[in-house]
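chain below, 69 aa
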Amino acid sequence: MPTLIEPIDIQVTSRRVLDERLEAAVNGLREVAMLTRTHGILITRNRPGHYTVALSEEVPFGMTRELIR
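prediction:
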């Protein structure tokens, strides 16, 4: 299945900014997920201060999961 929307990369140096950007990314992706009702949201911590937020077929619709690499 083609990607519905490109993953969102987040790079920050402060916790406050991280929380704001993660919340904004999840809220935006939640709107897209509501249209298809087939994807959940996966937040991946790639390394400290570097995250990726994406729709994922591996996460059930209505769920948000976190993966730490």
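The mean pLDDT is 93. Helices lie at 15-36.
thats it, cya
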